[in-house]
């Protein structure tokens, strides 16, 4: 039970913040808090992969983009010209498609957002499976490079594909109705419900993660992180565990991509860029590699600041600098920065030189 | 315990950002979302500088109708998600009077609906026609239309009896929009596109592409549509390969840096652009002459870099907004209607004539054809 206490605290904070913004009439903060909740989802997924399984990925923006773009394409690509084809008729009959009129009165026949969401997450899962198999055999820098390559490929594909809108990305992505009365949309009137959708998703995923970390699988992961060969010798199927976590974190990134794309009403190539992947890794590092709470707090905070434009023109530079500084001075993460013993150590070594 | 502590910290941090913001009286807040950094900084940086310069100038004179302008520039880095976040922030939080920008079509299309919902005037500095066609009530744009640039190029080709061409485009938004326009307009203009190549926006050498195209002896001219340094590189590579067919460029070539970079190879390049490139050559009675001369002189004196047509788009947007406030006061709805009633405003992009159905306000003649002679832009032909 003790392990769920912080979760309750998180829930309380989420509700408290919403009430506070309502009371102080600063509800507009919820917009960026919602966006950072979705980015935090990617980050805690990546934290599981990096901190617990000990595998780096510089391609997670790629999975986010696969999710976002797949959903965006399916829910905006008009199938009306093909509506007499057998497959399209069949899909419409089973309820996978929705017909409507666009704002200019033209007929619109697109995929149901639920169907699009499922397909998007499935697509990312499959890509992660195919990629993870060979790539996770690599270690250290080589794994980083291979995933970096994957991220670059996705970015280039998005830029070069007509379906993905090339450099302009995809606009006019419709809202995603989860349940009647509960819709993922960026409308000014739906800010509060969307804040709760986003944070509800985060809490849900945290429950899943906490359970995973404290299970047999979690112990196996830490064993892999500590010494992969030893874990292997002790009978842990290291290859399978690594792949499972890789796929899981990719699927979560894709899910976050789907939700944020519907929330924003569009997606652009910047979501697939290398700087986005570096940013995710930097935030996991700041939070302390193996601390999902640290990753969540830092993910929310830094994305919130970035989305509000606090870093201005130095946005990307800030995240690059953070990564370097953390790696040099606080490899355990900012929240675990044990300043006092470090200072003592420093003092001692200086004293020794004299 | 540590976890609990972490959570407490999260609360405190979240609380710190929820302080209420105070509103300032008697100033008009104008937001600007521009790609000052990132891949589209060649657009956003001059746009931001221009706006800063103009706001300073107008505030020194006492503001518009006594109202000072407070400029809030947000750097989107060309990322749509940031543009979305900033647009909501400017509308809901800063309650801006109007938004200038974004610099790119992709970003503009993503915040078009937000501006409509927030009933906030949006003056886009991006080129694509979809921004204003179909017309959205609060959305305007200042750059000329891509399709008009294509018309000018094809007309100039017809005069030279050219009908078989090769098309080269960059793989960015500007390039792909241009490619679509060229392909759409070619059949009607009697042009035959024999080859079409897309290159990376960061390309540093195009000699392979040139060699491939050169092998096709039927090609009478090359049209290049991009906004990147590759424009000058292409000219160089063609000259090095000894290929002497005429080279046409898009209005993206309107930056003298590219001419300087390609030296003698740039001679004879033909392209359409606004009249900001050489206002001193305009006739004295041209309505654009005086404002363009002033903008060019002011900008170049203040920032020590040659003026570009992109900064001009922000210049036009700012001036149009000021005109609207001047005639309609600080009521947003009235100012929006006032923009639709602006006629005969001579800006950098051309002479604007807005209406309820035309939120761009520029006609075919906003462009003029230019060529490079002696390392300078000069009017082409006739």
CATH topology label of the largest domain in chain B = Rossmann fold
Name the CATH superfamily classification of the largest domain in chain B. Answer: Response regulator
Count of DSSP helices of chain B? 12
Structural category of chain A = mainly alpha
Considering residues with a beta carbon less than 8 A from a beta carbon on another chain, report the largest interface and each chain's count: A-B, 56 and 54 residues
Read across the widest sheet of chain B, the strand sequence of neighbours is 2-1-3-4-5
Tell me roughly what share of residues is in helical segments of chain B: 40-55%
Spell out the helices and strands of chain A N to C: HHHHEEHHEEHHHHHHHH
Supply the CATH class of chain A: Mainly Alpha
Query: What is the 3D shape of chain A?
Result: globular
Q: What is the total tally of β strands of chain A? A: 4
The residue-averaged pLDDT of chain A reads 89
Produce a short descriptive summary.
The complex is a heterodimer of chains A (354) and B (382). With 354 residues, chain A is mainly alpha-helical.
Can you describe this structure?
The complex is a heterodimer of chains A (354) and B (382). Chain A is globular, with a radius of gyration of 22 Å. Chain A has 354 residues and is mainly α. In chain A, a hairpin with a 2-residue loop joins strand 3 and strand 4 (182-184). Chain A has 14 helices and 4 strands. Chain A has helices at 5-23, 29-52, 60-76, 86-93, 113-135, 140-160, 191-213, 216-226, 228-233, 238-264, 274-287, 292-307, 315-329, 339-353, and strands at residues 97-101, 107-111, 176-179, 182-184. The longest helix of chain A is centred in the C-terminal third of the chain and has 27 residues, at 238-264. In chain A, helix 2 packs parallel to helix 7 (191-213) and helix 3 (60-76) packs antiparallel against helix 5 (113-135). Chain B has 382 residues and is an alpha/beta fold. Chain B folds into 2 domains: 27-144 and 291-366, 3-Layer(aba) Sandwich (Rossmann fold), CATH 3.40.50.2300; 147-273, Rossmann fold, CATH 3.40.50. Chain B is built from 12 helices and 14 strands. Chain B has a 5-stranded parallel sheet with strand order 2-1-3-4-5, with helices on both faces. The longest helix of chain B has 20 residues, at 41-60. Chain B is globular and about 65 Å long. Residues 12-25 of chain B have low confidence and may be disordered.
């Amino acid at each position: 039970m003790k392990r769920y206490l912080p979760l309750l605290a998180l829930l309380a904070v989420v509700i408290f913040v919403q009430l506070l913004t309502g009371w102080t009439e600063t509800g507009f903060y919820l917009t960026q808090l919602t966006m950072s909740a979705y980015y935090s989802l990617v980050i805690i997924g990546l934290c599981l992969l990096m901190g617990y399984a000990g595998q780096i990925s510089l391609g997670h923006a790629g999975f986010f983009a696969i999710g976002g773009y797949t959903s965006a394409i399916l829910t905006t690509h008009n199938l009306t010209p093909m509506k007499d084809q057998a497959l399209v008729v069949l899909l419409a009959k089973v309820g996978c498609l929705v017909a409507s009129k666009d704002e200019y009165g033209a007929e619109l026949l697109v995929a149901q957002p639920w169907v699009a969401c499922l397909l998007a997450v499935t697509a990312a899962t499959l890509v992660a499976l195919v990629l993870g198999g060979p790539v996770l055999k690599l270690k250290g820098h080589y794994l980083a490079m291979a995933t970096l390559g994957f991220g670059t490929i996705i970015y280039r594909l998005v830029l070069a594909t007509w379906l993905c809108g090339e450099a302009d990305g995809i606009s006019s992505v419709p809202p995603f109705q989860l349940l009647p009365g509960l819709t993922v949309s960026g409308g000014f009137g739906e800010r509060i419900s969307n804040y709760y959708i986003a944070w509800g998703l985060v809490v849900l995923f945290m429950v899943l993660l906490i359970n995973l970390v404290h299970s047999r699988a979690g112990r196996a992961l830490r064993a892999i992180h500590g010494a992969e060969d030893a874990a292997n010798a002790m009978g842990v199927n290291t290859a399978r565990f690594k792949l499972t976590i890789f796929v899981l974190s990719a699927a979560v990134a894709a899910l976050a991509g789907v939700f944020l794309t519907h929330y924003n009403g569009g997606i652009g190539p910047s979501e697939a860029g290398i700087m986005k992947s570096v940013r995710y890794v930097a935030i996991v590092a700041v939070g302390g590699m193996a601390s999902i709470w640290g990753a969540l707090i830092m993910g929310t905070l830094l994305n919130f600041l970035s989305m509000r434009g606090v870093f201005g023109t130095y946005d990307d530079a800030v995240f690059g600098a953070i990564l370097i500084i953390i790696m040099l001075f606080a490899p355990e993460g900012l929240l675990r920065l044990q300043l006092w013993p470090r200072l003592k150590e420093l003092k001692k070594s200086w004293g020794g030189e004299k | 315990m540590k976890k609990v502590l972490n959570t407490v910290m999260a609360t405190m941090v979240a609380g710190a950002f929820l302080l209420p913001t105070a509103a300032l009286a008697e100033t008009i807040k104008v937001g600007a979302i521009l790609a000052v950094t990132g891949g589209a900084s060649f657009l956003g940086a001059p746009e931001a500088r221009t706006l800063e310069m103009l706001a300073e100038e107008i505030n020194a004179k006492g503001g518009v109708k006594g109202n000072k302008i407070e400029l809030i520039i947000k750097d989107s880095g060309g990322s749509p998600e940031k543009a979305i976040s900033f647009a909501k922030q400017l509308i809901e939080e800063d309650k801006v009077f109007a938004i200038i920008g974004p610099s790119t079509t992709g970003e503009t299309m993503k915040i078009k609906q937000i501006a409509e919902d927030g009933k906030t005037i949006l003056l886009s500095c991006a080129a694509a026609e979809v921004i204003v066609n179909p017309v959205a009530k609060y959305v305007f744009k200042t750059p000329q239309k891509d399709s008009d640039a294509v018309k000018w190029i094809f007309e100039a080709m017809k005069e030279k009896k050219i009908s078989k061409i090769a098309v080269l485009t960059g793989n960015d938004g500007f390039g792909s929009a241009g490619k679509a326009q060229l392909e759409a307009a070619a059949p009607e203009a009697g042009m035959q596109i024999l080859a079409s190549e897309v290159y990376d926006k960061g390309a540093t050498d195009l000699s392979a592409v040139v060699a491939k195209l050169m092998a096709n002896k039927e090609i009478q001219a090359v049209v290049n549509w991009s906004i990147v340094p590759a424009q000058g590189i292409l000219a160089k590579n063609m000259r090095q390969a000894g290929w002497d067919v005429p080279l046409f460029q898009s209005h993206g070539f309107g930056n003298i840096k590219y001419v300087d970079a390609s030296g003698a190879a740039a001679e004879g390049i033909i392209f359409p652009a606004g009249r900001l490139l050489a206002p001193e050559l305009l006739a004295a009675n041209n309505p654009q002459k005086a404002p363009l001369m002033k903008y060019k002189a002011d900008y170049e004196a203040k920032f020590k870099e040659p003026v570009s047509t992109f900064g001009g788009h922000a210049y036009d947007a700012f001036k149009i907004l000021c005109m609207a406030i001047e005639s309609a006061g600080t009521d947003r709805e009235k100012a929006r209607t006032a923009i639709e009633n602006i006629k005969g405003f001579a800006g950098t992009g051309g002479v604007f004539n807005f209406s309820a159905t035309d939120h761009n306000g520029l006609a075919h003649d906003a462009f003029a054809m230019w060529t490079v002679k002696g390392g300078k832009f000069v009017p082409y032909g006739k």
